[in-house]
Design brief:
With about 160 residues, the chain is mainly alpha-helical. Helix content is about 50%, strand content about 5%. It starts with 6 loop residues before the first helix and ends in a 6-residue tail after the last helix.
């Protein structure tokens, strides 16, 4: 009868295995480590060893970056996960709730941009007849520079 591998051993991965599983280059995983996004253990020979649960952390990082979140925002979110155990569904749900407000604001901003893009982006230039309706007398300038209507600023009427 073949000797079975302890369950815990099945949960440990080399950096190469993690790279293959996540589709990332080993250098990208090392970069995430330098930024504090993943924290591998080291074996007696000093080689990095990751938990299988790090696949989900890496996936979260990848998706978050694609959605425009900064490394610092991602690090802050991941810092709320337990370091001493594999995160549970409840742990991930908590992060999801915290990210939801940011995602909702981005969706709202993209929707405003889409709706303004073909006409006026609310920049305050007053160069189009529509700008006089969206931003009469350049009233949005009180909120600062840039595309104030797209950002979500509104004139009180």
């Amino acid at each position: 009868m073949a000797e079975s591998v302890p369950r815990e051993a099945n949960q440990i991965m080399s950096i190469g295995d993690l790279a293959e599983r996540t589709g990332l280059a080993v250098s990208a995983i090392r970069f995430y480590e330098t930024k504090g996004l993943v924290t591998p253990a080291r074996n007696a020979g000093g080689q990095r060893r990751y938990l299988r649960s790090d696949i989900r952390r890496i996936s979260f990082i990848q998706v978050s970056q694609q959605l425009g979140f900064t490394i610092e925002q991602i690090r802050t979110a991941l810092a709320t996960l337990p370091a001493s155990r594999t995160p549970t569904q409840k742990d991930w749900e908590r992060i999801s709730r915290n990210f939801r407000a940011h995602l909702d604001e981005r969706i709202n901003c993209m929707t405003r941009l889409r709706d303004y893009l073909d006409g006026c982006i609310g920049c305050g230039c007053l160069s189009m007849k529509k700008c006089a309706l969206v931003n009469p007398a350049d009233g949005l300038k009180k909120y600062g520079a840039g595309a104030r209507a797209v950002i979500g600023d509104k004139l009180e009427r």
